[in-house]
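Running log. JK asked me to keep both predictions on one page so they can be read side by side. First protein, sequence followed by its tokens:
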Amino acid sequence: MSAYDEQIKCHDYRIDPDFWKDPYGVEVSHDTLKFLFIPDHVSAYITSVLAHKVYRYQIDNIRTKEQITHAVMITMGGLLPGVMLHDHLAWTLNKNIPPIEFGTLGVRYYAGPGQPLDQPRIIHPLSIEVEGRVVGVVEDLVDLGGTARFVGQYLVEERKARKIVLIAPFLKTKNVIEEMDVIFFGHVPKDTWIITPRERVETLIKRVPHWRDHGATLEECNENLRTIGYPEYLLDTYLRATYERG
């Protein structure tokens, strides 16, 4: 069994932090992208480590008064890590560490796996006031960095935030680190599509027709999804209907 297979099928006590800090995806037929499937318990583990890093940032900035007081979850991707971070960071047992108020901002930058739009677009308004605040911007992945730059500029210039700190489980580019403070867990290669717990069905529905149109049979699509790590119940529910859809 490969390291990939071991990690997507492992129990909580067998999570390998080194693998997930620098993970790799698997190749499948009829596709140039690689795919990385993130199990629920691994997502929870990564979020807990990320929350600890945010807490460390808060401690380091007690004297500077640059602690994060507000966090903006970028929908849809930032919702899952954001809600899980909320469980760690919306409360405090240390009087020197402020609880973080969470809100949302809807931004769209991708039409599908590997298909960025020409520019990010705001599709849902900001739900909290951030004027004069240090704001954590929560994403699930920083790919080209376009969304992070767009949101950072919007919050500072339009909503008068004092400072932006990007918070994301994974980065694909290191360029954004040179432009703003970034708290992250690990890196993934640019050719790898991460499948988080919130987008398993979405990825299946968008990618199976791509494979089919590039010559894949139903059986090959089934094998691709199994190789990636999809559970049987999702294949039973969605695969044939998606493949046969016109």
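And the second, directly underneath as requested:
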Amino acid sequence: MNNIIFEHPLNEKMRTWLRVEFLLNQLNTHCHFDDNNGLIFFHALSELLEIIERNDIKSDLVKELELQKQKLVLWSNIEGVDHDLLNDLIHQFDDFIAQFNAIGRLGQPLKDDRFITAIRQRLMIPGGCCSFDLPSFHLWLKISQERRYSQIENWLQHLSTLDKSLTCYMQLIRQLGEFKRFVYTNNFFQETNGDVNLIRIRISLDKNVYPQVSGHMTRYSIRFLALEDYDNVNSDGIEFELACC
């Protein structure tokens, strides 16, 4: 059965982590491009730098890594746990924290790069990256792929600690939630929980519905809506799975 997983953050920090994770995935997916689709990469890079500039991503993520590391240390005292796995995660978090502490402001070399800055400024203008607007970018797209890829890899290297640490952190968070089966009745579902950062909703693609979530860390509600109004899908009685992380 083909399923789709929807994720919804229940606090502002998790909302930021999901957005940063999404943009990093966009960068890694579209880092190899030709002269017809290069702006996809730079749109994602510009949006990521915008988030980094508006938030203290480095400090907040270090705090989260420290918090999760402390939890892992406590778990190591529980009988039957996989100590090798726990120790490996603890060492990974220690390495990430040390790497963050060794760098200055996150992404600063990218913010100072005149080539990237010129593109970011034009991205705010509809159609502002035409060849007559950015002749330097037009030329750059025509140089050899090997030379372009080398420069892109250098740019992404400045984000590698963020990318690897956030991937590890989000993987741990997602593994904290176990999927449980529920039935959606009366076109409404509500749940009261403790301290939850993220909910994950798994549902069959055949249902052709998506969730609309509202609420916060301790209480939230879910409604399922059809993709198009004319689909006229009866969502009542739909089975779905929910994981609270």
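Observation for JK regarding the second prediction: Residues 174 and 245 are 6 Å apart (CA to CA).
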